[in-house]
Amino acid sequence: MLKDRVAIITGSSQGIGAGIARYFTKLGASVVVNYPFDSEADKANEVVKEIIANGGKAIALKANVASEEEVKQMVEDTVKEFGKLDILVNNAGITRDSSVKKMSVENFKMVIDTNLVGSFITSKVAAEVMAAQGYGRIINTSSIAGQEGNFGQANYAASKAGVLGLTKTLAREYARKGVTVNAVSPGFIRTPMTDAIPEDIRTNMINEIPVKRVGEPEDIAAAAAFLGSEQAGFITGQLLPINGGLNM
Ligand code: NDP
Predict the structure, then answer these.
(1) Which domains are present in the chain?
(2) In what order do the strands lie in the sheet with 179-186?
(3) Between the N and C ends of the chain, which has fewer C-beta atoms within 10 Å?
């Protein structure tokens, strides 16, 4: 499905991003496993090692998605290594949870900066490369919190709702250039981000999910692979919720 495609997956040294990187390489894509800081290089290199051991193609590249300079360098290095860039998955994301009353302006801005400004920067840089090629796929990551809001997540929910507006606007601006732009909206997925949730709250959350299980990174990866495929070329500007029916 993704044979000979080249993909950058932001924030892919663990969790959903690593799941997408592994899944894409199994479908024939070459991937860039992106990580933000030097201190995280080992985790990214482990993912790359595992992919290569399984017969896939991957390299690790450092770039903080909130830095335009670093993102430009990552995209340049990707094209240098693999010759082109077909797919960008904007997966990198952070949380800094607390009630609005206790949330500092600094923590509000930090989350917006990584989740929303970061997606803007990577899309802006990648979309121009894709437009010049006449082909590209951008998949952004929103969240059920962006659709519904979530107690303690004003910053995160705002960033993820913003991702939807960004997705639809990018889709309109780049459609005629062969670049589609869509967003996935995960519900409750098993990753280091959600492992931090206490057991009793986790059990209550699962009870509320109609399919009665948490999602796995592969649930998101399968959807991203479809949206990233040539076959999805007539789909753009859409939000695909992947949440076991939690939000309908
Ligand atoms: P994790 O925290 O497990 O992984 C997030 C990844 O993003 C990490 O690899 C992290 O790198 C990386 N990252 C953080 N900041 C930056 C940055 N500035 N530049 C580049 N990379 C960065 O999260 P998940 O896998 O759970 O989530 C992945 C995406 O899915 C996020 O956008 C999240 O908001 C979204 N999502 C997740 C849900 C869930 O239930 N898990 C639900 C809804 C949405 P490092 O660890 O090295 O700092």
Answers:
(1) 6-240 (3.40.50.720)
(2) 57-62, 30-35, 6-9, 87-90, 136-141, 179-186, 239-242
(3) C
